[in-house]
Amino acid sequence: MEKHTKHCAIGRCVKSHDGITCKPDGVTCEHYIPDLPALREALDEERQWRWEDMTVPELARAGLKRYVEERVPTGGFLEAVLCNDLKESFARADIENRKNLGAIVYWLYNSAPSNCWGSPKKVRDWLNRIDEVK
Q: How far apart are the C-alpha atoms of 44 and 52, rounded to whole Å?
């Protein structure tokens, strides 16, 4: 059997078929080291949803991802945020989203394409697949 040096810190355990568990019985060895690039990527993914002491709630994350990646319309709260309508954003937000509105806007500013949010026209154009970057 080949020695498992990718995940086992001391190289004593036997490599399994899945490349994650070290012992033949399928149990992860006590010397396991996670795949650091994948761990960094997961942490970066999580960090992009945070700002100061706020975090974009899970449901808002899912809605924003669908909107940006698949151009799926959002609910009323996220639509107001995307249209840059502060009054309606607060009026439509539940407590969780209201507390974390800063993180949502921070994510949009830093991660979303600028032509998909900021005004009702940009949101309409994005949903209608009119990609005019101005």
A: 15
